[in-house]
Amino acid sequence: QVQLVESGGGLVQAGGSLRLSCAASGRSFSSRAMGWFRQPPGKEREFVASIHWSGGRTNYADSVKGRFTISRDNAKNTVYLQMNSLKPEDTAVYYCAAAASGGYYPLSGWRAGPNDYWGQGTQVTVSS
C-alpha cells in the first residue's frame, strides 16, 4: 500500500513559479514510476509529467514542456514538480500518482490509471 500527500499549491500571478511536492509512504517507492496529473475546472483530468523510478527518464505534456520539471529524491520518498512561467490555463487541482506495480515505464511515458495510487490533490491557481 502506498499513500501520497501533495503540498506546495497556492495562488500565484502569471509568470510566477511554484514547486509542488509529493511525499510517499509505503513500500518500494524507488521502483515505482511516478507522475503528476491535473484537472482544470470543468475539465477531465490530464497528464502533466512522469518520471522513471531511477529518475533517469522523464516525459511531459506538450503544454508544459520547457516550463515544468519533474524530479524525484528516492532517499526522501518524494517527487517534485517545479512549475515556472505559469499561465492562467495552468490553474487546476494537481494530483500525484504512483504506479501500483514497480519496474514498468514505457518509452512514451507512464500514465496512471484507476488502479494506481493517487494523492488527494493540491490546488494551483494562476491569476492573470
Characteristics of this structure?
128 residues; seven-stranded mixed β-sheet
Entry summary:
The protein has strands at residues 2-7, 10-13, 18-26, 34-39, 46-51, 58-60, 68-73, 78-83, 92-98, 117-118, 122-127. With 128 residues, it is mostly beta strands.
Number of discrete helical segments: 0
Mean pLDDT: 95
Low-confidence stretches: none
Main sheet makeup? 7 strands, mixed
Radius of gyration: 14 Å
Distance between the termini: 40 Å
Helix content: under 10%
- Total beta-strand segments: 11
Helix-strand sequence? EEEEEEEEEEE
Structural class computed from helices and strand pairing: mainly beta
Shape: globular
Oligomeric state of this protein: single chain
Percent range for β-strand residues? over 45%
Structure in words:
The model has no long low-confidence stretch (mean pLDDT 95). The chain is mainly β. It has strands at residues 2-7, 10-13, 18-26, 34-39, 46-51, 58-60, 68-73, 78-83, 92-98, 117-118, 122-127.
